Amino acid sequence: MKTVTRILLASAAGLAVVPVAHAADLPARKAAPVEYVRVCSAFGAGFFYIPGTDTCLRVSGRARFEYGYQGSYSRSGTAGDYSGYRSIGRLNLDARTQTAYGTLRAFVRFEMSSRTGIPTLHSGTQNRIANAFPAFGVDTFGRAQTVVNADKAFIQFAGFTAGRAASFYDFYAHDFEFIASTMSSDIASTNLAAYTATFGQGFSATLSVEDSIARKTPIYAPTSTAGFPGSVALSPIFLGYNAAGLPTGIGTVDVIQRSRMPDFVGALRYDGGWGSAQVSAAVHELNTGNPVLGSFTGANLGAALSDANKRTLSRTATEYGWAVQGGVKINLPFIAAGDTLYLQGAYGEGANMYTGVTSYMGSYSASASSIQGSAFSQFFSDATLNPFTNRLELSTSFSAVASLLHYWTPELRSAVFGSYGEVSFARGARAAQGAYFGLTGTGPGTPGTRFFTLSQTLRDSYRFVVGGSLIWSPVKELDIGAEAIYTRYGVQNGRVLDLSRYPGQNAAFVNNLANPVVTTGSVDAFQVRARVQRDF
Questions:
Q1: Torsion angle (degrees, nearest 10) of CA 405, 408, 410, 413
Q2: Is the CB of residue 80 less than 8 Å from the CB of residue 73?
Q3: pTM across the whole model
């Protein structure tokens, strides 16, 4: 029995050894090598190779909190806010590949923010350019807004840039400011296609074809709901005249501008050890829609016009606005490392966005104020339609800005800045619209009446602003600071009715007011904004 047991155990042991022996004869399978992320030093700090490619990528971003305080002249409607809050999140993706033709680059920036409160933080501009979702609650309408913005998405290759990028026309572009209150062209995001030629010795030149939507300030229209579904912006045209040469009927032209031609931008730039300089120019098309069918007579005209007294109304001719800008950026290391001075000036006709006179007040709007319930609003229209000639007449504007950044210590810096600008309309533009008022009962008022004299409509205006900031950076890429600005804007000549005292004024109301009436020539505004920002 013992012998049988030994035989069975020996057999089991032999069977167990056989698979092991066969396994030893098979080839061993090696684990796949781990591909670690490699640092890419070809394009500076922060880049790494995307695994499996020769493309280098840098991921960066920003988190920002802001609080702003600005007074209000009114508590009616959506006005009356003193405080404003904004938080911003930003994500940047920068991908670069070295090629035989140079660097191939793709850059994408996504930005999202939540805004509430005062209008210079909760900006209607974001709604007008389709970046924002406004709130509609009883207590939040006009006071809360979420912004989602594809801020950048462009490709650069062999001198070409194509996609959504900052305008090549811009130079200073509020570089040292929180509130962005100076009159300076600053189009951070627009669709464009450009070519930049580099000549060496620091010189370069760029020709850029840019989206005209980013630069349109509405043509003046006394009847307008532009910016809402079913938008209409109608400007009057006189049809038919009597024996004395006075207009006897009125038609209208749709003056909402269509996207037909891009803007053409050219820039000559120099970059050197002492700083930078740039001269840029732009051409901007202004156009209208068709005359509106079914001409109408004014309230004071009586019977409809006879066919014999009507004249054929042709389409309004296209006009072309233009702007030029020059600026220098001067490094001042002899004062302190990092100190910099900007000086810039711009002039334009029919191109107010290019001179930056609409900055802070309200871009993409024919008229706006920087403070709620303001006594006076500036008018910014790029052009007016002359009702006698059916021609677009361009407005003119200019601006100047100076901005200085100074480092008190490597961790503590401040900026001081100032700016001045003016907007002027074509000679006779107000009087022409006043003649229209004499027929229909709307507009700036009949020339010679008190309503016309005190009307704010199409008044030539000015604005200046001064401000300063103090920023502490206790660690790298962390900013904690505050900025304060003072601005004044008003009419270049005469006075206007104080709208804070007479809201909803009209011709009959003003002309029947007993003397004296409350008027103003300017408005003052003051804002303080605090910021905490972390870049990574």
A1: -40
A2: no
A3: 0.87
Which residue shows structure tokens 């920036």? Answer: 109
Please give the Cα distance from 233 to 239 (Å, whole number): 19
Amino acid at 88: I
Contact 172, 280 (CB under 8 A): no
Cα(51)–Cα(40) distance, integer angstroms: 11
195 CB-near residues (< 8 Å, 6+ apart): 159, 160, 161, 206, 207, 208
Report how far residue 413's alpha carbon sits from residue 417's, in angstroms, rounded to the nearest whole number. Answer: 14
Q: pLDDT tens digits, residue range 283-298? A: 999 999 988 754 444 4
Structure letter (DSSP) for residue 10: H
Q: Which residues pair with 215 in a beta bridge?
A: none
Question: Nearest CA to 209 among 157, 284, 317?
Answer: 284
Q: Are 287 and 318 in contact (CB under 8 A)?
A: yes
- CA torsion 211-215-216-220 (nearest 10°) is -160
Structure tokens at 476: 């790298």
The two tokens of residue 33 are 């090598």
Q: Cβ–Cβ contacts within 10 Å for residue 52, how many?
A: 7
User: Using an 8 Å Cβ cutoff, are 116 and 122 in contact?
Assistant: yes
If we measure between CA atoms, which residue out of 513, 380, 383, 386 comes closest to residue 453?
A: 513
Tokens of 384: 């007016």
Residue 480 burial by Cβ neighbours in a 10 Å radius (0-12, 13-18, 19+)? middle
Token reading at 392: 């677009």
Q: How far is Cα 39 from Cα 461, in angstroms, rounded to an integer?
A: 56
- Give pLDDT tens digits for 178-217: 999 999 999 999 999 999 999 999 999 999 999 999 999 9
Cβ contacts of 71 within 8 Å, gap of 6 or more: 82, 371, 525, 526
